[in-house]
Amino acid sequence: MSNSDRTSSHRLVRFDQHARDLVNEMVDAGWSLRITKKGEAFLKAPDGSTTTTVSRSSLRGRSGANARAFFERWKKGQLDG
């Protein structure tokens, strides 16, 4: 599926562009995605135990930056391991 197909997905329509980009990058890295009842993206890493949520708006406080930093640390751990 192309990036434009993923970002136009009905599941991510209410997410801002930064949040969609992060979710799509995580899915490309093998994370599974489900949308919670509150409308957040709940993602589970390929290891099956690491999880995180991404808010629809990356402009809410530091949540977007924290989610991005969490994912970057996870990626670094995959390269180091």
The run of helices and strands is HHEEEH
Estimate nothing, just give the exact number of structural domains: 1
Give the uncertain stretches in residue-range form: 1-5
**Rg calc:** 12 Å
Structural class: alpha+beta
Q: How many strands in all?
A: 3
Mean pLDDT rating: 84
Biggest sheet strand order reads: 1-2-3
Number of helices: 3
Please outline the major beta sheet: 3 strands, antiparallel
Strand content: 5-15%
Distance between the termini: 29 Å
Question: Describe it for me?
Answer:
- The chain is an alpha+beta fold and 81 residues long.
- The chain has one domain.
- It contains three helices and three strands.
- The protein has helices at 3-7, 17-28, 63-80, and strands at 32-35, 41-44, 51-54.
- The protein has a three-stranded antiparallel β-sheet.
- Helix 2 (17-28) runs parallel beside helix 3 (63-80).
- The longest helix is centred in the last third of the chain and has 18 residues, at 63-80.
Please outline what is shown here.
This protein is α+β, with helices and mostly antiparallel strands. 43% of the residues lie in helices and 15% in strands.
Features:
alpha+beta, 3 helices, 81 residues, three-stranded antiparallel β-sheet
Question: How would the blueprint of this fold be written?
Answer:
Blueprint lengths: L2 H5 L9 H12 L3 E4 L5 E4 L6 E4 L8 H18 L1
Antiparallel strand pairs: 1-2, 2-3
Helix pairs in contact: 2-3
